[in-house]
Amino acid sequence: MKKKLINYLISLMIIATTFGQEVDQIKLANEYYQSKEYDKAVDIYKKLSKEKRNIPQIHSNYLDLMINNDKPDDALKYINYVIKQYPGNSRYRVDQIYVARLLPNQKEYKRLKDALYDASRGNVNTLKKIAEELSQRQLHNDALVFLSHARVESQDSKAYALDFAKNYSSLGNDPKMIAEYVNFASQQTRHVPYIKNILQELLSKESIKEILEEVLIIRSQQYPDDVLYNDFLMWLYIQKNDYYGAFVQAKAIDRNSQRSGNTVMQVAKVAYDNQAYGDAILFYDYIVTKSDQGSMREKAQFLSLLSKEKKLTEKLPIDKQALYQIAGAYQQFYEYTTETNPYRLQALKNKAGIMAYQLNELDTAINILEKLKNLPGITKTLEAQVKMDLGNINLIVGNHWEASLLYSQIEKDNPYAAMGYEAKLKNARLHYFMSNFDLAKAHLDILKRSTTKEIANDALDLSLFIETNTMGDSNELGLMEYASISLLMYQNRFDEAREKLEILTNTQLGHPIRDDSFWLLAKLDKRMGNYKEALSSINTLISNYSEGVLGDDALFMKAQILEEYLDNRSEAQQVYRQFLEDFPGSAYAVEARRRFRILRGDGLN
Questions:
Q1: Do residues 95 and 79 touch, judged by C-beta distance below 8 A?
Q2: How far apart are CA 332 and CA 301, in angstroms?
């Protein structure tokens, strides 16, 4: 008995020693594999493969080495041996198919594939697992065959849609890939955002947009009561900036889901946010005429007026008669809507803004705002906005200290809100206009550290501008004149500003303010409708200061003026092309590329 126990312990020690040696050998072979010493790795793997227990640890590397060294016969011999050791392992059988496919005679490849299907027929989970393993081996067509069998067995025509889509994607079959992605999205609502994220990456290809649109239109016709496809189409049209197309789908969604116009309102807001004001007006007016909800109608009516105002003020020169009509419409909205309407007082404020900033009727604007400030029901936020407008108007008429006092009140009442930061920025800009550069920088330095991103960026830009034009040998006279001209422009005294800018560009020849002066002159001429004069200043900038920070701004504005105001589409196209070559990383690059493609005739929306 004692002798048997000793022999048993000795056997255990031998097994443990052998196992430890094998583990060390596997690690050594893997190290050779990683360091690309393949011959050494193969020798060790070959010895280790004789023991069944080692196969799972060495299989992938060993098989790949034989395949990559163009030894398919050795690989087939090895994998056949592995199958005998593990006859029920689908992964090894897939590898057997993979190796057989490398042989000149494809009969064995077909036989093995058919045999694997016969062995897994009727077992949906096994068919799906084999499809995944085939896909990992880049055998995507074979994976699709097994997925198709699994789909039939599951009796679900949309089963495994994501797996189908990934395999079709690898094969470059975009139409079937898109169809399967849509299948997956249609299975559960929670799938939709995931699929939209995937498609978002693919929509840079124009052909993908066309395929997706075609698939969705067909599905929406097949299933007219399922708003999923309308929602998808609406999303697609928004990606294409085709807001009218999105509007059509939004109407269908509202009609089929009793949403009473909410979806159309959402599309109208998207159009407005993307400055497609004409579309926004159309959509809001549709709600005004069709909605049976009074509050929604009034909201749409106000937002339609706001869109009309934006559309008028973005086009130069401004149509003042049309703006008077909008101002009158705001007044009517204020007078005839219900007192509880949250946009009623805002309409009065907007009217004052038109009178002050566009029509230069400053006294009228002040009277409206003073009245509005004391109306019952005004919110703290709107009251602060009214004070902001009063500060702006006082700055326009030259009451600088009254303006500063109003800005300071807003800042004090809203110390940690965006409104307070905006007021502080306006106070800083007021000091800049008055050539109090040190005081302006003190305000700006605070804003750079603790505020919203947009205001922080504006503060940083103005601070750097002051610093650049007051440092070194640069005297402050050039900046003082530039700041006073900027104030004239803010006050809509354009003729005076232009006269002084002409002098500034011709006298400050060596001052760093000179390129900024040409840029300001170009913007002023564009605003005044002097498009050819604006191009002259821009061309000076491009010729003499193209390496400066205004280089991309100048070239983009040149293309924009040629396209939108001088109707010189061919030259605009050339300038957009030059822009994309010279400034590929510019913030304007995406818009420049879109405009270039439209001018080239690519048919983009």
A1: yes
A2: 11
The model's confidence at residue 147, banded by pLDDT at 50, 70 and 90, is: very high
- Between CA 57 and CA 29 the distance in angstroms is 11
Q: Are 236 and 213 in contact (CB under 8 A)?
A: yes
Pick from 391, 307, 292, 377: nearest CA to 339: 377
Nearest of 398, 297, 312 to residue 350 by alpha carbon: 312
Secondary structure (DSSP) of 216-242: HHHHHHHSTT-HHHHHHHHHHHHHTT-
Kindly report, residue by residue over 403-453, the tens digit of the pLDDT: 999 999 999 999 989 999 999 999 999 999 999 999 999 999 999 876 788
Q: How far apart are CA 442 and CA 432, in angstroms?
A: 11
| CA dihedral (22, 23, 25, 29) positive or negative | positive
Task: Return d(Cα 526, Cα 268) in angstroms, integer.
Answer: 29
Q: Long-range contacts of range 372-379, CB-CB < 8 Å, 24 or more positions apart? A: 372/345, 372/348, 375/345, 377/339, 377/345, 378/345
CA distances 141 to 113, 133, 166, 299, Å, are 12, 12, 11, 55
| Alpha-carbon span 94 to 4, nearest angstrom | 46
Nearest one of 563, 558, 596, 560 to 577, comparing CA atoms: 596
Model pLDDT for residues 381-397, shown as the tens digit of each residue: 999 999 999 999 999 99
pLDDT in tens, 59-98: 889 888 888 888 888 888 998 999 999 988 999 999 999 9
Of 153, 151, 171, the C-alpha closest to 161 is 151
User: What are the tokens at 51?
Assistant: 């023991």
Q: CA angle, corner 461, sides to 457 and 466, nearest 5?
A: 150
- How many alpha carbons lie under 13 Å from residue 227 in its C-beta half-sphere? 14
CA distance linking residue 334 with residue 306, whole number of Å: 13
> Mean pLDDT, the chain, as a whole number?
91
- The tokens for 492 are 């809509």
